[in-house]
Amino acid sequence: MNNLFILLLLPLVSALVLAFVKSSSSAKWAALGLSVLQLVLTVPFLCQFVPDASIQFEQSYDWIPRLGIKFHIGLDGISLPLVLLTNGLIPLIILSTFGKTLKGNFYALVSFMQAGLLLVFVALDAFSFYVGWEVALIPIYFICALWGEGDRIRVNLKFFIYTFFGSLLMLVAILYLYQQTATKDFEWSSFAALDLHDSTQRWIFWAFFIAFAVKIPIFPFHTWQPDTYTNAPTAGTMLLAGIMLKMGTFGLVRWLIPIAPLGVAAYGQMALILCIIGVVYASLIAFKQQDTKRLIAYSSIAHVGLIGAGIFAWNQEGLQGALMQMVNHGISVIGLFFVLDIIAQRTGTRTLKELGGLAERMPKLAIFFLIIIMGAVGLPLTNGFIGEFLLLKGVYGVGLLYAVFGGLTLIFGAVYMLRLFQRTMLGTGSKSNNAVTDIKGHEIVVLFIVAVVVLYLGVFPNGLLHLSEASVTQLLEQVKF
Amino acid sequence: MAAIITLSLLGILVLYLGLFKAKSALLPVTLIGLLVALGCELALWGGDAKPIYSGMVVFDNFALAFSILCIVTTGLILLLSKAYFSSISNNVAEYYCLILFSLTGALMVSAYHNFAMLFIGIEVMSVALYILVGIRKTDFGSNEAALKYFLMGAFSTGFLLFGITLLYGATGTFDITGVREYLIANPQQISPYFYGGVLLLLIGLCFKVGAAPFHFWTPDVYEGAPILITSYMSTVVKVASFAGFLRLFGYVFVPLHDFWPPVLLIVIIITLFIGNITAMMQASFKRMLAYSSISHAGYMLFAIVALGATSTSSIFTYAIAYSLSSVAAFAGLILVKRAKGSDQFVAFNGLGKTNPFLAFVITVAMLSLAGIPLTAGFIGKFMMFNTVMQDYHIVLLLLAVVNAAIGVFYYLRVVVHMYFKTAEDEGGAIVLPLSFKVVLATTVALTLLIGLYPDCIIGLL
Prior knowledge:
Chain A is 75% helix and 3% strand. Chain A is mostly helical.
């Protein structure tokens, strides 16, 4: 069982089936079952993957032969971790919704989105990539706007138009590159082999960069993010922050930099500086947040800023750190959002001022919360440490000053994360705490899995690093600037 | 030619059916007639096409493809008409007959090989429509629309005719191949009359397809006309006009490509911005569709100005995608209007809950019009952009991209109303008659099918 196509097809089939399930409880279990099946189907890929630089499990079908469009998919050391992340997180996200009453259509949208995400990660043809990129956007728009809260309609429309505009720019660049290829096709390899003029590569850089920067989001393209994250239902926020933003960082590594190295040579430093500005800026805003969900939204901008900086540093440590941290951030952020959702459900508030002393009432939650926070802060023996260490080492390779400012994320992160923990779990409790009960059932399962992964990757990061090492080395040799 | 004859005879037959009060036979007979016409067109497919009837018409694959699209779209629209026409008028036969005559004109416009035929085709197509738009005799809006459409239509026909005359004066022939040969033979000393003729033809055709700044009739006429007639105008008439446009500028005037593309470019840019920005501000779904049809005309003109090898197939793909989505959207509008009595966006509130199937179909139609992947509309836009890119009009493409992003704003608006807002008063429940179910299911299935596997369409032309 190592047919990559089936891995893309199953979520689509699941979505089709789930769309017609009316009862909430059967929809939940069916969705969980199907997503676990998807995860199980992913395992053979991990087992049979040979950690060298080659593209494996490749499949290519003619899609629109008259335009040279192929449905070309495959896995390498860069995409495999993200495929694992996607298929690993979706069951957790589905499990985290077990406390809510949601019909089949919600889970159908989640599955549909999974198909789009996977296509983005495995596509080796720019057309397929673009289709996956857009297909992932539709379901998350509906998830956030249908089950969201507050000013959800306006906020999500902004999110949609922002990202859609970005991706249309990318489409323009893709079409241009297509016209340039000698073989008139959309293959990744043909695009990467193009030898374009300096000035051309510069605008290609911008077309791709804006598309990816909006998705990630990199400062100053981040303005949609805090509102969208805050107003989305928790499962939607998890999808957005846990998986979807990795589409952007992955796009930088897979498409932008190999296609427009000269563009990166011209503007890469500027992009790196924007990423670092994002780190500092978002951290400073996170300090002042009273809304817990918004706080994590800003912390997410800071974290991915560092990932972006690591990618634009374009060296072994930076890239490997970025890949590692993409996975880590996905896991941690899901844990964080879930904890905050549990707290908000039990106490009825997300405002820090009104919270406090919850550890007394919820000791189990406090333990898991602490572990996840440690991971997010980057304490040694948690997953975040390895990733951030590598990232900073990579950024240091470009310039000391960048590393210093990038390194602020560790300090700032510790400040706002520990403040979050302190204000919610410690201190004197408010009256409303009396009725609060500790976590149970599916909540324990989700948080336990997250905590175990956080610790496991902190102690044994080598498995993950080993997967991507050869691919990263080869990519660095191929693309120099 | 058999199809044009069939349809003309069918129109007269339908009139007689109306005379003898055979109301229930009208729709079946019309549909069977359309099928026969479709069969006639299909039989000619792929044959060697020579101009026939003294070079008046030519049934090449280009003409056949657009004719088939027009016939199929008309069939779908007529399927929606079952209870519709009888609800607004007693003389139902008139509708069928006039639509059939108009369709005959549309077929002529897609197959003309002589300027006289182009003129006759456009007139046959339009005159029937002047009546159809104003057919609700007691309705003020319908009358206003008919008068506006008639005045504007007559005006634009004047331009067209004057343009043809000037071309004749310069070249001495009405035959389009003859005109083209004149251009190739005299690259240096083209008569100034010729240039004037080209510009006047351009203006006349821009009137017909509703491109800015000649679009002012579109919103009012689309709004005032009965919904089914609006859907017919915005699909069949538009598609046929584009076929005519493309044959003229993509074949006859190609040797003159230094002259007219800049003019057309300005028209396109104005059309896109006016269409999209005005569509954003509409509170009525019907009016929004009218303005969006203006902006779609802008996108389709792109392919004409690009003059690439793929122009024809991209316009054709785009026209299919656009027609399918428009029919679905108008079908939804008819149902909603019937139940709620309003064509404002608010009438769509809560549709996602009360009628998930209809809401899903409208959503797919909107996503297709907006050009989101996995729908036919995306393939259409993709090919259109690709055709433009072949000429490296990158700035033009960037303007198109900005407009596509604006488009999402108003297309999603109806989706927002359907899914994210709840209806205040329930109004009448929406019942889907079988014919509507068939049309909606067909359009949505074809939209998704072409979105997933467009090769079957792209390969045709």
